[in-house]
Input
Amino acid sequence: MIGARVMTEGLAYSLKGKRVFVAGHRGMVGSALVRRLASEDCEIVTVGRDRVDLRRQADVEAWMDAHRPHAVFVPAATVGGILANDSRPAEFIYDNLMIEANLIQAARRAGAEKLLFLGSSCIYPRDTPQPMVEEALLTGPLEATNQWYAVAKIAGIKLCQAYRRQYGCDFISAMPTNLYGPGDNFDLQSSHVLPALIAKTHAAKISKSPSVTVWGSGKPRREFLHVDDCADALVFLMQQYSEEMHVNVGTGKDVSILELAELVKDVVGFGGEFVMDTSKPDGTPRKLMDVSRLTKRGWQARTELADGVRGVYRWYCEQLLQVT
Ligand code: GFB
Output
């Protein structure tokens, strides 16, 4: 049993009978949240991008006024891996600023009781001591490849804090580490490392290619959290947490990119070798979360990385079968 269910008796905020809006329900985190919320006694409301562009204030306000959710989850965001962040800075800063500002303001206007904003571990300074504690925010310069996204996500934290101070809104922020899971983006130009390695290694196995290219030096270290664990932590925080400080969400364990590549190789059953492409950036040397704020409250991740990668690889193969 995980923390969230053990502690249901002393809930600070109950979702029972509530209308719960998941903004961005088609994304990897949003769809995991919808799966997770299905076991809560609440009404889940969603809206597609074809009907409401979350970057447009009037659309968001009109939709929120009409539906008046009690609780709002904000996983909606323009996201991507290191190359997408580095090559599309305007989209990463503009889209994310607009989405979060519109949703937070519209939620207040419509009288939402609670809102949870989702950020990212890239909010912390590039060379911050590891593991990264919540208090490290704004104590040093950001990593250059994702500073645009990071600035937008820091603004989201500050919006929640400001609305809490000025208007008394119960708006909180969670900062997940690097996420992976079913519904991830496997496009090699815009994806994160884990789905990219699965897609590349699988393609190499099928085409009997002798090698797979890994970007950078392979030395950076990353922490990976399964998206279903992340969704569980977000529901837990929605129910249990009501403070100004954002909360790290992760496993507290990291691996090097080369160790991750070896794990993917084992799971996929690829017999070749890795070739490093050092023309690609490494990004932040290490991003390991200090998750004690969350674990002290009774929640911890339960999916081991090897099991999670096996599950995602199965999911990926099923998707490939469906399109062929
Ligand atoms: O997952 P990733 O793109 O993002 O890359 P970040 C992590 C590391 O894996 C980097 C290396 O050192 C990459 O160079 N890597 C190796 C690869 N091979 C590949 C590959 O084929 N594809 C990709 N994508 N990487 C992102 C931020 O940073 O993390 C976002 O840019 C966000 O803003 C997200 O915070 C969680 O971990 O470096």
Notes: Confidence is low (pLDDT under 50) at residues 1-9. The CA atoms of residues 157 and 173 lie 6 Å apart.
